[in-house]
Amino acid sequence: MAETMAPRPLPGHTWYGEGQGAFSGAALALMRRLDGLFLELAAACGAEEHVFPPFLPAGALNRIDYFGSFPHLATFPVNLERDEANLAKFSCAAVDDSERVRLTAIEAPAHVLTPSACYHFYRLFEGRRFDQPVYVTTNAQCFRREDHYAPLERQWAFAMREIVCIGLAEEVEAFLAAYRVRVDALIEKIGLPARWERATDPFFNPGSNSKYVMQQLLPVKHELVYDGRLAIGSVNFHHDHFGRAFDMQRAGVPLHSGCVAFGVERWASCIVQQFGADPARWP
User: Fold this and answer.
1) Phi/psi class of residue 25: alpha, beta or left (left: φ > 0; alpha: ψ in -120 to 50)?
2) pTM for this entry
3) Which fold has domain 23-75+115-281?
């Protein structure tokens, strides 16, 4: 994806310069309106909505080799070791002159802040046996550590709406094809200049990662790119990777999965870039 450009300011959005932002007024209303559109898309397949906590067990992500593929993106909640001497040492000089926390001994983290919304479903459905395809959706606060940030367009913490199908290969492929058509209709209605491009995930050390090689060989990920530079959504076919890792089956066969993902802040950025900062001009 091309380098992001400085976007127009979005009224009601406060950028903290650390990969995070706050929303109120027109910006908050726009975020809610956009997610409402994505929920309408989810309703087209009868997707059941779920809400999840902010953490995922590290063991669950390790089973899908997340840490081997994306160690540079992971964010961990950490806790101090609870012995009195360690806590006393920490409390004496918790924050240094650069306003960074000076950690003393910490417990080994057992969780990871959510990196992708759909991961919660595979943990939720672990060991399940299904007799028909499953359609689900969630909007999760996701966290990915990046080497730089830009307001709305590249953030450490951001909202991701996902619609997920778990089923046989042909059911998942039909789901993804149908949603490309639905998303095309949505961007045409709104008037956003965006098109689908073949893509790969941002793997660590991609040349030596077998999953990267597979994505080069098979068209498993396509991104919806606005103005030739900013990915605002994607469709992803996971084959039976998660079905095998989390023992999701139908009639003894590991299930396939696929998802349609929307970066809500990035859509908000596109609206203000395309139509200006005046909410009266927004579609």
Assistant:
1) left
2) 0.91
3) BirA Bifunctional Protein; domain 2 (3.30.930)
